[in-house]
Design a protein that fits this description.
- This protein folds into two domains: 68 residues; 148 residues, Heat Shock Protein 90.
- The protein contains five helices and seven strands, in the order H-H-E-H-E-E-H-E-E-H-E-E.
- Helix 1 packs antiparallel against helix 2, helix 3 packs across helix 4 and helix 4 runs antiparallel to helix 5.
- The longest helix is centred in the first third of the chain and has 40 residues.
- 26% of the residues are buried.
Length: 249
């Protein structure tokens, strides 16, 4: 807190910076989401129009099932990108969230972005609800899921990403793990550095985990890469507990 005269409001710079970070990330997410949807919709509608256009003489007529499949594919994309109500960062307040629908929606969206369709989401939730910042929680989940999906093991019979959550006396423990290829040896902790860019297939994706660290630490929590035998990545995120009234002015 900074000092202020009786006629001036008190400026909480830490809270303001966290709020600005939330808005910047949300604007970027919505921009990427809009571009993705526009591109996919144009491609789907062009395909449907082609199916409905009279084919060349002698060519087989398209079936209504083909048109329905194409249309349902577009509807599925729109459904995956639909945000649950009440999770806008402009509220800048702690709300009670059901974790399962948020995790499932974020996972489907990250699957769309990365093209990682044959990957299973495993929810291991000891705690079904959290009282936290909705946009910040979504971005933490999204970046960790994106990192896991981008480093999935193409040789694995079934790829999976697991999300665990449990309550602690002071907050929550969020764990995101996978059975992907994992980071190269010695890189696991350096990917948390915002300015670290490893010369490996991690590439720019390392920035996503660094963003998670920024959001978590701004909120008073921590993120730790947990060593695990074999392949894969395991991140443990501690989130402090807030009262629902803490961020209501």
């Amino acid at each position: 807190m900074t000092d202020a005269t009786p006629d001036q409001p008190v400026l909480d710079t830490d809270r303001l910076l966290a709020y600005v970070a939330d808005l910047e990330l949300e604007v970027d997410r919505l921009r990427r989401q809009s571009r993705f949807l526009e591109k996919h919709a144009a491609k789907s509608l062009a395909h449907i129009l082609k199916l409905c256009t009279a084919p060349d003489p002698g060519a087989p007529l398209p079936t209504l099932g083909e048109v329905e499949t194409a249309a349902r594919g577009l509807v599925d994309v729109v459904r995956d990108l639909h945000d649950p109500p009440g999770y806008h960062p402009a509220h800048d307040q702690v709300v009670a969230m059901a974790v399962r629908p948020v995790a499932e929606q974020v996972f489907r969206w990250q699957q769309r972005l990365t093209g990682a369709r044959p990957v299973e989401l495993r929810l291991e939730l000891e705690q079904d609800h959290v009282e936290w910042f909705p946009a910040r929680f979504r971005h933490i989940l999204g970046n960790l899921m994106s990192d896991a999906l981008r480093h999935r093991d193409p040789a694995a019979e079934l790829g999976w990403v697991a999300v665990g959550l449990r309550a602690t006396p002071t907050g929550y423990e969020l764990r995101v793990s996978d059975n992907g290829v994992g980071p190269p040896e010695g890189v696991d902790r350096r990917v948390l550095d915002l300015f670290y860019r490893p010369a490996t297939r991690l590439g720019a994706q390392a920035a996503g985990v660094a963003v998670v660290r920024l959001l978590v630490e701004q909120s008073g929590g921590s993120i730790t890469p947990v060593p695990r035998a074999g392949r894969g990545t395991d991140y443990l995120v501690t989130l402090p507990r807030y009262d629902l009234l803490d961020y209501l002015d």
